[in-house]
């Protein structure tokens, strides 16, 4: 039996849901769960056989607090070393801290993250592991790629788009949706011009600042670009300015607009995902489902889901430091866009679109892997689900956003 726990915990509502359980604790907010399980329950004979799987969705958020606050956690001193942490970052302040995520990793039975490549990046060194790399090397971490909701994102049934299409009708379907999209955002209507999109938060992780610097380097090519997203004010302004500079080629729409996002996937040919880091990423999956080829940086789940030259294009890994834009990363975007445009004008593009649309991006495969890992914990009464059972719709509310 599984008990999914994803947000904050309140002890009074900590129900006993049966003795033989696996708790899935998600991210730093639940780092205390395995500790309280031991200190408050198991010592009284409750949940004696329970196990905890700790899942990391983004290691940039760890829950670092003043070391002197340990007593507020109401835990025995023997847990102190699991929390004990030396913060090496100036911001907000260096020094000795308690670290909830560190304790979650150490006190759980198994640690999981949202893609195999992100798991290897987290173990690789201080920069990508954000100072928990040594702990993860010691305790281990397994990467399982996320799936996507293939019912909500389905070009054959999507209610937001002008015409529905599938792999057999993508060429005509996309052309009509492209013209509708161009008309909607006020760009010249032309079904033959490649349309490139970016959809995401405007912030350093997603590399929207790198993209803003790259656009002037490739905007002279025969293309249109539409950017949708909200985020840091400075970056919102940067993207809105593009539209003033390149009125016939670029649109920067600073909004959160689900309908427009669907229309963009339906009408676009290529999507840029210039993330500095990306634990799993969802937009590349959504894009592939709509026959949009992703151009992603070499990080996290992008590496696991994009096959260069087959289902998309991979750029080099970008510099993780967020203070400035590395000119090499700007060049990487520019040259990848030019490479993709060459393919757009060749017969191979249609093959790649078919490759994308043929992929099973649902939760089916990932759910099977999750099941294997959870069964390996050996909790009594655990058994595999029926083959072909779609787990995703039921689990949907427990899946974190990208
Ligand atoms: C979202 O985009 C659609 C399509 O462009 C538009 O009709 C609608 O007004 C937009 N909604 C908001 C809240 O901006």
Automatic annotation (TrEMBL):
<dbReference type="GO" id="GO:0004373">
    <property type="term" value="F:alpha-1,4-glucan glucosyltransferase (UDP-glucose donor) activity"/>
</dbReference>
<keyword id="KW-0809">Transit peptide</keyword>
<dbReference type="Pfam" id="PF08323">
    <property type="entry name" value="Glyco_transf_5"/>
</dbReference>
<dbReference type="GO" id="GO:0009507">
    <property type="term" value="C:chloroplast"/>
</dbReference>
<comment type="pathway">
    <text>Glycan biosynthesis; starch biosynthesis.</text>
</comment>
<keyword id="KW-0750">Starch biosynthesis</keyword>
<keyword id="KW-0328">Glycosyltransferase</keyword>
<keyword id="KW-0732">Signal</keyword>
<dbReference type="InterPro" id="IPR001296">
    <property type="entry name" value="Glyco_trans_1"/>
</dbReference>
<dbReference type="Pfam" id="PF00534">
    <property type="entry name" value="Glycos_transf_1"/>
</dbReference>
<keyword id="KW-0934">Plastid</keyword>
<feature type="signal peptide">
    <location>
        <begin position="1"/>
        <end position="18"/>
    </location>
</feature>
<dbReference type="InterPro" id="IPR013534">
    <property type="entry name" value="Starch_synth_cat_dom"/>
</dbReference>
<dbReference type="GO" id="GO:0009501">
    <property type="term" value="C:amyloplast"/>
</dbReference>
<protein>
    <recommendedName>
        <fullName>Starch synthase, chloroplastic/amyloplastic</fullName>
        <ecNumber>2.4.1.-</ecNumber>
    </recommendedName>
</protein>
<dbReference type="GO" id="GO:0019252">
    <property type="term" value="P:starch biosynthetic process"/>
</dbReference>
<feature type="domain" description="Glycosyl transferase family 1">
    <location>
        <begin position="189"/>
        <end position="315"/>
    </location>
</feature>
<keyword id="KW-0150">Chloroplast</keyword>
<comment type="similarity">
    <text>Belongs to the glycosyltransferase 1 family. Bacterial/plant glycogen synthase subfamily.</text>
</comment>
<keyword id="KW-0035">Amyloplast</keyword>
<feature type="domain" description="Starch synthase catalytic">
    <location>
        <begin position="19"/>
        <end position="137"/>
    </location>
</feature>
<keyword id="KW-0808">Transferase</keyword>
<dbReference type="InterPro" id="IPR011835">
    <property type="entry name" value="GS/SS"/>
</dbReference>
């Amino acid at each position: 039996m599984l008990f999914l726990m994803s947000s904050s915990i309140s002890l009074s509502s900590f129900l006993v849901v049966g003795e033989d359980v696996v708790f899935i604790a998600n991210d730093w907010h639940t780092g205390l769960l395995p500790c309280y399980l031991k200190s408050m329950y198991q010592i009284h004979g409750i949940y004696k056989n329970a196990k905890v799987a700790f899942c990391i969705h983004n290691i940039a958020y760890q829950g670092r607090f003043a070391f002197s606050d340990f007593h507020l956690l109401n835990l025995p001193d023997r847990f102190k070393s699991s929390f004990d942490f030396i913060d090496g970052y100036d911001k907000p302040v260096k020094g000795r801290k308690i670290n909830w995520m560190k304790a979650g990793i150490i006190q759980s039975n198994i640690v999981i993250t949202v893609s195999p490549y992100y798991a290897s990046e987290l173990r690789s060194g201080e920069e990508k592991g954000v100072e928990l790399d040594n702990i993860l090397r010691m305790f281990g971490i397994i990467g399982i790629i996320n799936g996507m909701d293939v019912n909500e994102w389905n070009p054959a049934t999507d209610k937001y788009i002008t015409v529905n299409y599938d792999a057999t009708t993508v060429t005509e379907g996309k052309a009509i949706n492209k013209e509708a999209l161009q008309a909607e955002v006020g760009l010249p209507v032309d079904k033959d011009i490649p349309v490139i999109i970016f959809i995401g938060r405007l912030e350093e992780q997603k590399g929207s600042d790198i993209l803003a610097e790259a656009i002037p380097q490739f905007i002279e090519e025969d293309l249109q670009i539409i950017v949708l997203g909200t985020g840091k004010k400075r970056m919102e302004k940067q993207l809105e300015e593009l539209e003033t500079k390149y009125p016939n080629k670029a649109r920067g729409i600073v909004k959160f607009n689900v309908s427009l996002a669907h229309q963009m996937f339906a009408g676009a040919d290529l999507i840029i995902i210039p993330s500095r880091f990306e634990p799993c990423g969802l937009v590349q999956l959504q894009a592939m489902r709509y026959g949009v080829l992703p151009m992603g940086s070499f990080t996290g789940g992008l590496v696991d889901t994009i096959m260069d030259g087959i289902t998309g294009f991979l750029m080099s890994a970008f510099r993780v430091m967020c203070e400035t834009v590395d000119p090499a990363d700007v060049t990487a975007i520019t040259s990848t866009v030019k490479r993709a445009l060459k393919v757009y004008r060749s017969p191979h593009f249609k093959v790649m679109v078919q490759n994308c649309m043929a992929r099973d991006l649902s939760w089916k495969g990932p759910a099977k892997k999750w099941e294997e890992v959870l069964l390996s914990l050996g909790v009594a009464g655990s058994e595999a689900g029926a083959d072909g059972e779609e787990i995703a719709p039921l689990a949907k509310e427990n899946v974190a956003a990208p």
